[in-house]
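Appendix B: complex inputs.
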Amino acid sequence: MSTFNKIYKYSRIWVLLIVAILLPKWIPNLYYQGVVNTALIFAILSLSLNILSGCTGLFCVGFVAFYGIGAYGAAILATRFQWPILLCLLAGGVISMAFSLLLGLPTMRLRGMYFAVATLAFGEIMYQLFVNWVSVTGGSSGIKRIPTPNWFGVNFRKPENYYYILLVAAVIVIILTRNLINSRPGRAMLSIRENDIAAEAMGVDVPKYKMLAFAVSTFFAGVAGGLFAFYARYIDPTSFVNAESSAILAMMVVGGIGSISGSFIGGLVLSILPEMMRFLGNIRLVLYGLAVVVIIIFAPKGIGGAIEWIDGVLCGTIKVGQQSQAADRQAEVKE
Amino acid sequence: MVNFIQALIQGVAMGSLYGLIAIGYVLIYNAWGILNFAQGDMVMVGAFAVLVTHMRLGLPMWLAIPVALLICMLIGFLIEITAFRPLIDAIQQRRLIATIGIGIFLRNLVRVVFGADPYYFPPIFDNTPYKVGSLTIVPQNIWNMVIGFLLIGALTLFLKRTTMGKSMRATAQDREAARLMGINVKRSMSLTFIIASALGGLAGMLICPVFYVVPTLGTSMGNKGFSSALFGGISSDGGSMLGGIVLGLLEAIGATTISSAFQSSIAYAVLFLVLIFMPNGIFGKKESRKV
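Resulting structure:
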């Protein structure tokens, strides 16, 4: 390992952090700042879906419902009960987690596609609930005048200030996810993804860890929803249409199933890309669909795979031209 | 009471269309082992194909529908070779996302070409309602039912009696074993896909006089279709027709007796209960699994 590798290995995270902190200075206008903020929220969402679908292998096609529950929960607590905003964010996550328990207890024994369809049904039902339960959610006119945080004398109404709240949240979620995956429960989740029957035979309590993964990921999704509510200051059901769920899934898969850096960057890229292509008009969504298919076919490990490879080369653990260890392992599994 | 029977007729008519869409899901699921999220968009493609052949090219209806069906089959085949065949050995999540990507692609391609405005389509069959006692019967509804059931019958005969159909079923059961028996696996899998696309497209053509033709038609119809497929049991061809009719009935009855605002939620709520209490559907066989 050369000196360069060592320097890179120890400084990479700090360089990234500094770039992230300085980013608003380089963003030319409010519009792009808004795009970046939304992208961060979606990156958190894709990261939390990654715990459920990427690491535990439970395919969720109604994930937006939990995002919506968190947003509505936080917004209602803040506007009607004047709870402090930080508490609202956490409460949004907890409410969303409670719903996941409600959904999870009967559906945890469903496998693969059946679970996916159950979550899809849940997503559609929740959307109808947001639209039709007017006395609580305000129906299609939504909830207006959601307060913005005003901490330490800084007004976070400006998008470039709110960016830092999102950044802190993202960093916390990344660290927690990383610790979770590298712990005993995390390994149990990975084993469930690979083969749930084999995992059960090895003594993994499959329903318990599935439930844990579901609860954790929906908690983060709920917090992301709350972050969205306080950022947008106005929410209505159109933000939580269930079709968005497949967009989040696409972010996770394009980013790389099971990869933290990948799903985070997948979230950023797939929400910024359509905005960057806005000059193309409606064709951008055609290209988006095409890009998703092409990435799936030609880059099995997604963006995350590429990032981990570059990272490995710079750290000196992978030599250029040599297959990565992960690829070797995959080849072995196939045999 | 009259209202109730009226709702029943409406429900069965809508349900047989759901059944047609559902069978597409079932065929593809059994052959490819995957839920095809783009199947709903094939319904939309079918609707737009007949819109082009009948309204734009001015073909008479008896010619317009077969031509539109051919277009659907061709598009289905293209989807299969681009997004399904390369991924046949990939893990399920990647394959599912590929079908979602294809769905996004189709939906937006149609939106770019035709715009997002709804199109009106004239009734395919005679649309003057008949009075039977105090009931009003629209021939369109009856025709949808008849066509739905005839097609299911024909499909079942095809799958059970012909060599091609048998090889399709053999492929669905076990790809490797079918290949060893000398069955052209690639061809029968393509054929399955093409038939499924054609059925989805046909359902779209029958639907377009009922609803306006919009690029997002596929999403709602697709969800209904695979709810029906699960109702009937994803492993059973005939069951999905019944599943479709059950769903159609539930929607119609729910809309008249409870509230039309919750019409689609009722279907989903029932789907939810079916999944919890009868995960294999009404007619599905229990799947056994091994490591």
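The mean pLDDT of chain B is 82.
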